[in-house]
Amino acid sequence: MKKAIILLVAICSISLPAAANETVRVLDAWARATILTSRPGAAYATIESDSGDRLLGVTTPVADHVMIHAIESDGDVSRMKHVEVLEIPAGQRIALAPGGMHLMLMGLHGKLEEGAMFPMTLSFEKAGEVTVEVSVLGIAADGPQNTGKEAGQ
Ligand SMILES: [Cu+2]
After folding, report:
1. Which residues on neighbouring strands pair with residue 130, listed in sequence order?
2. pTM here?
3. What whole-number distance in Å separates Cα of residue 36 and Cα of residue 141?
4. CB neighbour class for 7 (10 Å; exposed up to 12, middle 13-18, buried from 19)
5. Ligand 1 centroid – CA 51 distance (Å)
6. CA distance 13 to 22
7. DSSP assignment letter at 89
8. Distance between alpha carbon 37 and the CA centroid of its chain, in Å?
9. Using CB atoms within 10 A of its CB, is residue 13 exposed (0-12), middle (13-18) or buried (19+)?
10. Which of 99, 21, 29, 82 is nearest to 53 (CA)?
11. Hey, what CATH topology would domain 20-137 get?
12. Per-residue pLDDT tens digits for 28-59
């Protein structure tokens, strides 16, 4: 009986989403719903790597191209800065979140509708390509834990 349970656990861990890779993990990928296709969309995720890696680029079928953006503040003014390569230090979690680093979806092919999902492929120097499913949350969402739907949000 115990053997059967162990086997079941083993099967379950194999069927985890494609985001699970031996060296790099891309967790909680989400995007904000968009109203206008003329404005870029923004996607977020948490990335971690056991041995350290570098994110070289991102693609998705829902947009022409994806840029890695950081926020740079200069006094009261904050502006977006294009990041060519995002370093993922070993054992650290890099959180892409509203108000900070994000993936800018340039040239959206259509509105990102709340509740929809779309694939996004992240290319890492060592781990190669990691494709994740991105959940589209509400336009006021701050993340998968705060979808902006709770009272008072
Ligand atoms: Cu941006």
Report:
1. 122
2. 0.80
3. 17
4. exposed
5. 28
6. 12
7. -
8. 20
9. exposed
10. 21
11. Immunoglobulin-like (2.60.40)
12. 999 999 988 889 999 999 999 999 999 999 99
